[in-house]
Amino acid sequence: QVQLQMSGPGLVKPSETLSLMCTVSGGSISGYYWSWVRQPPGKGLEWLGYIYFSGTTLYNPSFESRVTMSVDTSKNQLSLNLNSVSAADTAVYYCAKGQSDTYWRFDSWGQGTLVTVSS
Amino acid sequence: DIVLTQSPDSLAVSLGERATINCKSSQSILYSPNNKNSLSWFQQKPGQPPKLLIYWASTRESGVPDRFSGSGSGTDFTLTITSLQPEDAAVYYCQQYYDIGTFGQGTKLEIK
User: Fold this and answer.
1) CA-to-CA separations, B37 to B32, B34, B76, B104, in angstroms, rounded
2) For position B101, what pLDDT does the model report?
3) How would residue B51 be classed by pLDDT, with cut points 50, 70 and 90?
4) B83 Cα to chain A: minimum distance (Å)
5) Looking at the partner chain, which of B49, B100, B101 has a beta carbon nearest the beta carbon of A112?
6) Residues within 8 A of A (CB atoms), B 31-90 only
7) B105: burial class by Cβ within 10 Å (0-12, 13-18, 19+)?
8) pLDDT tens by residue, A24-62
9) CB contact at 8 A, B54 and B31
């Protein structure tokens, strides 16, 4: 099973851009769907969107105007950018691996990283 | 947007007994091409990412104990856990993937 290691700042200022990276080891990014999911403290799960290894994306309309996902197959890395953040974007963010034909059948997850939006 | 509503919000069930969690969709999530319902169930323990238990409403993910089962169709779905074990204490979420992937609000299961 692949390992997903997340990295990025734990504190972001309001109105700035949240940037996270997810590095895949033990397997290839190629051939699969990769999603980002977040969870505000003490609350439920929100799917932000997915990126296919080819670069094709599908974003949750709730975030579409602010989110950008990218993939670097040469580095086996995924990136998430969420701009114009506010306190409502404080959450644990996860990257998750889907399948080759379905984005939603998640079989591996990053450890999760808490991002706090605060000045 | 499709809204998933889980019930109850929390429940406490005795060790060895059966737990039932419901998930109601605001519209049908039956995927016509394969006549299957686009619903998953996840288990999440504190400090851990979610774990996929069930997909297509009733297909158990590889490695998931057979005391976890999913049922339902159209708009009403159920996750049943029989012979409850201490390690089953967790929050359970349903998710639909018929439209963009929305989750239910979660149900906290406590083992008495």
Assistant:
1) 9, 9, 10, 15
2) 86
3) very high
4) 25
5) B49
6) 40, 42, 44, 49-50, 52, 55, 61
7) middle
8) 999 999 999 999 999 999 999 999 999 999 999 999 999
9) no
